[in-house]
Structure formats: C-alpha cells, structure tokens
Amino acid sequence: MTSPTPPKANDAQLEAMLAKALRRHAAAPAQPDAATEPEVAEVPEAQQHCGLIAIVGKPNVGKSTLLNALVGQKVSITSRKAQTTRHRITGVRTLGKTQFVFVDTPGFQTRHGNALNRSLNKTVAGAVTDVDLVVFVVEAGRFHQEDAKVLALLPSSVPVILLANKFDLIHRRAQLAPWLREMQERHPFAEIVPMSANNARDVSRFFGICEKYLPQQPWMHGADELTDRSEKFLASEIVREKLFRLTGDELPYTSTVVIDKFEEDGRMRRIAATIVVERDGHKGMVIGEGGEKLKRIGTEARMELEKLLDAKVFLELWVKVRSGWADDDARVRSFGYE
Ligand code: GDP
Ligand code: MG
Fold first, then answer.
1. Domain ranges of the chain
2. Which residue out of 55, 65, 136 has the highest number of ligand 1 atoms within 8 Å of its CB and is therefore the one to mutate?
3. Beta-sheet strand order (sheet of 268-277)
4. Model pTM?
5. CATH class of segment(s) 11-211
6. 173-182 pLDDT, tens per residue?
7. CATH class entry, domain 231-334
8. For ligand 1, atom 10, which residue shows the shortest CA distance?
9. Ligand nearest to the CA of 65
C-alpha cells in the first residue's frame, strides 16, 4: 500500500455519482431516445433556450463519435488514427425548447511545432472562450499528460463537464471511485459523467445533463439545421475519413484533401477532389496496386456522400505530392486551416 490518502469531504458525493452511473448501465427501463422524441414543436421565442457547447479533449478520446451521436448524423469524421479532426465543426440539435450548438475541436497537438499544429492550437484555445459549457472528454479511468495539457487551457469562467467516455471498456467499475476522486481534485468540474459515446441511451441522457447550462435566448439556427458546415466541407471530410480508414496507419496524418470542384445541379453533385500527400511513397499507398485503393476510397466516399447529401454524386479523385506542406504557413492557410 502507498501512503493513505486523507478522507475527502466529497467522498459521499462521488460514491453517489458512481452508483448513479452504475445504475444507468444496469438493464434500466428503456427511456425515450432522443431519436424517437418529438424533435421540433412550435416554441415561442420567449421560451427558447440555446447555447454553445465546446467539446474538447486530446485526440482519440471519442469527441467526433460523441458529436455525430448528439447531432444524429455524421458531421465530423472519426477514425482510430489520431488528429483526424482539424477544423472547428458545429453540430446543431434542437429538442423541445432547447437548441444545442456543439463545437468539436481538434485534439491538442503537442508533439510537433510546425505551422499546421500552431494553427490547430489556436483553434482549440479560441473554441473554449465564448461558450456556455465545455465538455471535456477523457477516457474513463485514464488521465495522461496530454489530457492535462487540454485541461490547462480551459477557462475557469465556464462550467466544465468531465465526460468519462468509453465506460463500456471499464470491466471492474468499482475501481473507478479513486479515479473519480482524483479527477474532482484536478478541476472543480460542474459534473462528472461516465458514459459511452456509442451508447444511444447514454447520449440521449446527455442532452438533459447539458440543458441546464444553456441560457434562455432565441435559437441561433433553424430548428432542423444540423451543421453550419457546407456540403463542400462535408465532402472533403468524408474523403479524408475514407483515406485514413483505408490506408491504415502507414499514411501520415499530414495528408489532406482539397476540393477542386463542387457543382450543384438539382439533385446532382459533381465533385473533384485532390488528395495531397507529402512524399512519392505516400502517393503509392493511396493509389494502391493497379489503382485499387484509390478506387475504393472513391467508391466508399461517393456512397456515403449520396446518403448524406441525398443526391446523386459524381466524384473524381486525384493524388498530388506537395512535400513539406504542413511546415509552410501560407500553404496551410491556402488549404483552409486559418
Ligand atoms: P476523437 O479523435 O476524439 O474525435 O475520437 P473519435 O471520435 O475519432 O474516436 C476514436 C476511437 O474511439 C474510434 O475508434 C471510436 O470508435 C472509439 N470510441 C469512441 N467512443 C467510444 C466509446 O464510448 N466506447 C468505445 N469502446 N469506443 C469508442
Ligand atoms: Mg475527432
């Protein structure tokens, strides 16, 4: 045994929080799902609630998975590969009288100091001021140096919910109590919520938890709006997701996708995109034997885009080598990362 920790005044609270979380995961009576709830009724402006919620956390903790589940549609790509989210992405969900405006941010980048990562860090810092609520996502039972660096960026003026994600991966849940205690000491979190972003019931409950932090004010977006991102942006994100998923770990995250053409013609979209990689060797990885890999990336991206945009999609893909683009400020800007 290591030296005994002095008893904390909030132990009972933490035990209660843990017990509540555990009960949630027992076979509880089915609650109405966000998906089956009546979404949009006529709500007079004077009764509307609305607020900005920043979703922050180090790469790979499940921020994009959470955002997509909250919005009920894919607006942010997910992947096992770190750093797949570079942009600030807004997702909107209106339930009852409340409009939730979610902001997904890139994970805090600490390993490299190049122009791309400097731009990423500015986006993170900018995303947490000016919001009504911050959701700080970590993996349940874990807290690493990279998590601490994100936590250090959070303002004390905004309530922060600690979302202990991937709760499904914790096998002996009682062991989480000391971790919860440790977390409470790191920051005065408004709430600690152990849950799984890929569990629909947890996600629908999460709306109720966030709701009380959002002020009474008119909605900022249309009631059926899901994202303020353009179709063109979504197209580049989907291609990028397929690129990362189908090339596996070999392709460096610095490769990117540029949309060269996006033409809308009724229920038809003509899209041309260039996958920009850093080296000739990477180009081969993307194209694959006999062009097989690139063809698959294109087919999967097209099928997903057709569903997402509810349109017929023609997608043309190119691969180009631009060595060192991630180190060049001007070029990073020209690819749309401010
Ligand atoms: P981000 O980098 O923080 O945006 O993380 P992603 O949303 O891309 O997720 C990273 C990985 O974690 C993906 O493989 C997800 O499927 C996985 N993941 C996300 N949430 C959960 C969860 O609640 N439970 C489990 N087991 N995996 C999850
Ligand atoms: Mg992400």
1. 11-211, 231-334
2. 65
3. 256-265, 268-277, 312-321
4. 0.65
5. alpha beta
6. 788 989 999 9
7. alpha beta
8. 60
9. 1
